[in-house]
Amino acid sequence: MEFLEPVIGIFNQGLDFFRPGLVAYAGDGVSTINWMPLGIQLGVIALVLALLMREIGGIIIFTVVGVIIHVIVDVVMPMVRGGGGAGFDMNGFIAQFTQMDYLLYLGALAVGYFVGIIVLSILKGLIFRGD
Fold first, then answer.
1. pLDDT for position 131
2. Is 48:42 a contact under the CB 8 Å cutoff?
3. Which of these, 21, 55, 66, 67, has the minimum number of CB atoms within 10 Å of its CB?
4. C-alpha angle 24/77/34, rounded to 5°?
5. Interatomic CA distance for residues 33 and 25, integer angstroms
6. Cα–Cα–Cα angle for 56, 46, 123, nearest 5°?
7. Among the listed residues 38, 64, 66, 72, the one whose alpha carbon sits nearest the alpha carbon of residue 51
8. Across-strand partners of 33?
9. Rg of the chain over CA atoms, in angstroms?
10. What are the 10-residue block averages of pLDDT along the chain, 131 residues in total?
């Protein structure tokens, strides 16, 4: 599997670049990234968006929509799980967009949705061929 080593090296460089944002917002805040909840949330949203996308030309729009939906779910889920005790702080939410870690997290989400929607759209095209 020597031919995969350059690809794995590029992937690891990208992961190292986005790691502070992923650890801060999709991990424990110290050193670990919780891949399972992040992957499930990203996979479900990307699957729905890939099924809705008609042409590959709309990939940028669907990537942005995927990131927006992901951020909304990130904000709403603690309120749903908290049983009404957790509130929404608009000032804290807006202040996140000035932090570099949060911007790195959004960048990682954008790359994830871009690749995920493309792969799932290709699979959709293979399965649902006869329009």
1. 52
2. no
3. 55
4. 35
5. 9
6. 55
7. 66
8. 27
9. 17
10. 88 92 90 92 96 92 96 88 71 90 95 96 86 52
